[in-house]
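Translate structure to sequence.
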């Protein structure tokens, strides 16, 4: 007990020792909100509340892991449920799958899977996309799910001009998902929210099962998440939420800041605790953050003070160009490590878009600085891993049509696109999964004998694999790799792909399977493995124990802290991002994003911009961010770099933005993968401009966790 309360401030103690009834912890960055959540869990357990009645919902898997480790420290061996909303829902759905027409081995479609399913639904619904795009339709459907609008509701809400295209596609898409025994990311929350709404018995059963619910980063919850925690806190309103409206940065994904602002209205009996002491940052950093955020009109001001040392002034640095910016920062880090004895892990370089990391990476490599980058070239998104995962998916769920289409001719086995199309049409006509159509290949019209034979051979191979479904994951995976001669296939295609790491990735995947078997000697199942793979979040590869400089987007940095922080590319059009700056709400969200970045810093902070920046290989003048003028410039240290000529000796050294430069900011939040995985709006189709007013109704469902991370070990 002493250990639990030791060193806490009075308001922190008040929050930690609060037991029953709703609790709102409203406080600025670095004030110990997350710390309070962990200590509160430990305290509740020490007061005799069974661990099994507690659920702590976090924004990322990483946050959940950290929380688990800390609770374990304070209250060893207690099985409290901790994880993200999506994982929470995925597990509940596993149990109640039949209530929504799924079976318990349902698959979670990742973003690119959903995209394929959507295309097929559009085809089946016979919608012409000449006046709209599949992306737009998908986005409308995703928004609808987020607002808990069912296909029937959307159809009945259609204007007299007839149902919209999205309204026509929506039921077809949902039906296809059901046929495939699959859900998309939006569905995880959507199904559970609706289940709770429509089944009072289940709702009250789960309400008493999870009597104590804690939500961190509540300012970034969306309507579906709100509905879920609300439904679970009626008979036992022991809901405690923690958040900072100034750090709400997922409006573009449907997060609704009103969820936190209205908490006191929703729960009139609420106890509200405000934490005002910041433990993280120097006064210099805090003043910069405070001055900036005061410019947001739609906010309630919060006082924040700290007893930390004054520290160094915040640096505002103007570089000639992106090369200099990257090199300058790498030099500084390198010097600090050598001279001041700091460690690489003490530094973070934050940016608005992943594209900005490229030049930094180059500079880090040249100085042999160890770094980890959290971005889109994700392990689970690599072609070879997706192929093997698709085999596992199909073994786990024979109705998984997206997996079927991916692997039926991978490695190539003479099953052409036409054959696949015939199988798909047959499946659509008979409302059966494609594997079923393949089993009936003799009944499928228009197939050459050779193709039919190839399909039969595939089905036979599949049946052999399916028998192995209950083997250990390692055995199963090795069997799949051998049976499909997958490595030989990779080696054959290596020349074209110029990618010799593919085979190594397969080995890495087998290692992951071995580890999974080891961690789950009793409860390991193919299903669980696939669920974990589907729900890995972008910040998961962030290992704060690893001694590397961290490169990440501002979005991904939420909740974290580093002794020294560099925020690069603080330029007009980048931060604020050109796609968000035209609306007040968009502009204010960009400001909050910079606020989040600034408040990650513990000791030192540098914000930088460049005079020119390369854009598609062309150097263009860059303008510093309008946010600069909102900072306490008088007390900051402004450094303008001298032009230097020793940079342009290296062709490979390029900070040009890739094509994704002109994609909307939505996809830049955490990543810009070629496969569209993650960071996107719950369905992978976010490449359209959309206005998302922060204070209006939630408009897009956040799928928080769609990404996987790569640690590029240099
Ligand atoms: P954010 O809004 O950025 O998520 P937060 O409010 O969740 O911030 P924490 O991450 O919980 O803040 O705490 C910030 C830092 O301050 C952490 O390093 C934490 O350990 C430390 N801290 C918080 N409270 C105390 C305390 N009472 N004594 C010592 N350190 C503290
Ligand atoms: Mg926190």
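Result:
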């Amino acid at each position: 007990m002493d250990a639990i309360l030791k060193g806490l401030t009075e308001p922190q103690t008040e929050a930690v020792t609060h037991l029953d009834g709703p609790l709102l912890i409203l406080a600025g960055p670095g004030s110990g909100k997350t710390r309070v959540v962990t200590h509160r869990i430990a305290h509740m357990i020490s007061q005799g509340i069974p661990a099994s009645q507690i659920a702590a919902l976090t924004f990322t898997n990483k946050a959940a892991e950290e929380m688990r480790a800390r609770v374990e420290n304070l209250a060893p061996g207690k099985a409290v449920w901790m994880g993200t909303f999506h994982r929470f829902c995925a597990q509940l759905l596993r149990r109640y799958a039949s209530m929504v027409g799924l079976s318990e081995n349902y698959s979670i479609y990742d973003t690119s899977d959903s995209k394929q399913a959507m295309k097929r639904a559009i085809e089946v619904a016979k919608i012409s996309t000449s006046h709209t795009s599949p992306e737009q339709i998908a986005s409308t459907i995703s928004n609808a799910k987020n607002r808990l609008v069912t296909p029937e509701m959307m159809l009945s809400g259609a204007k007299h001009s007839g149902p919209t295209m999205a309204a026509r596609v929506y039921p077809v898409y949902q039906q296809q998902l059901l046929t495939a025994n699959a859900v998309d990311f939006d569905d995880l929350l959507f199904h559970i929210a609706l289940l709770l709404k429509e089944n009072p018995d289940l709702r009250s059963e789960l309400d008493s099962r999870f009597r104590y619910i804690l939500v961190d980063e509540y300012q970034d919850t969306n309507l579906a998440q709100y509905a879920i925690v609300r439904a679970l806190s009626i008979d036992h309103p022991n809901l405690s939420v923690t958040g900072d409206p100034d750090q709400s940065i997922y409006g573009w994904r449907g997060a609704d800041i009103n969820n936190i602002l209205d908490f006191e209205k929703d729960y009139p009996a609420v106890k509200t605790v405000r934490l005002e002491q910041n433990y993280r940052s120097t006064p210099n950093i805090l003043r910069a953050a405070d001055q900036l955020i005061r410019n947001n009109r739609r906010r309630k001001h919060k006082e924040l003070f700290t007893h930390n040392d004054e520290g160094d002034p915040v640096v505002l640095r103007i570089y000639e160009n992106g090369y200099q910016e990257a090199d300058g920062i790498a030099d500084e880090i390198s010097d600090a490590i050598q001279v001041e004895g700091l460690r690489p892990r003490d530094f973070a370089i934050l940016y608005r878009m992943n594209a900005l990391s490229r030049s930094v990476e180059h500079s880090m490599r040249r100085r042999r600085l160890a770094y980890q980058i959290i971005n889109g070239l994700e392990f689970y998104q690599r072609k070879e891993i997706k192929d093997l995962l698709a085999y596992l998916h199909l073994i786990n769920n024979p109705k998984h049509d997206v997996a079927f289409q991916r692997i039926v001719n991978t490695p190539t086995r003479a099953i052409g696109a036409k054959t696949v199309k015939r199988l798909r049409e047959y499946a659509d006509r008979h409302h059966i999964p494609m594997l079923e159509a393949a089993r009936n290949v003799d009944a499928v019209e228009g197939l050459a004998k050779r193709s039919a034979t190839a399909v039969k051979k595939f089905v036979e191979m599949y049946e052999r694999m399916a028998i192995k479904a209950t083997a250990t994951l390692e055995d199963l995976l090795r069997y799949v790799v051998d049976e499909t001669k997958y490595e030989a296939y990779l080696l054959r295609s290596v020349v074209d792909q110029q990618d010799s790491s593919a085979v190594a990735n397969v080995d890495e995947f087998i290692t992951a399977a071995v580890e999974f078997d080891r961690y789950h000697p009793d409860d390991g199942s193919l299903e669980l493995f696939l669920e974990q793979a589907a729900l890995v979040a972008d910040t998961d590869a962030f290992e704060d124990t690893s001694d590397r400089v961290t490169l990440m987007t501002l979005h991904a940095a939420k909740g974290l802290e580093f002794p020294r922080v560099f925020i690069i590319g603080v330029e007009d059009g980048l931060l604020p991002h050109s796609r968000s700056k035209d609306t007040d709400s968009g502009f204010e969200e960009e400001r909050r994003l910079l606020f989040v970045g600034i408040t990650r810093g513990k000791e030192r902070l540098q914000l930088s911009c460049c005079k020119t920046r390369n854009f598609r290989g062309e150097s263009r003048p860059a303008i510093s961010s309008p946010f600069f003028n909102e900072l306490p410039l008088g007390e900051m240290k402004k450094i303008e770099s001298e032009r230097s000529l020793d940079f342009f000796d290296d062709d490979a050294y390029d900070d040009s933005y890739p094509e994704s430069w002109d994609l909307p900011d939505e996809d830049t939040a955490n990543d810009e993968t070629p496969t569209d995985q993650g960071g996107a709006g719950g369905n992978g189709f976010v490449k359209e401009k959309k206005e998302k007013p922060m204070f209006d109704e939630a408009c897009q469902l956040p799928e928080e966790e769609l990404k996987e991370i790569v640690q590029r070990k240099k």
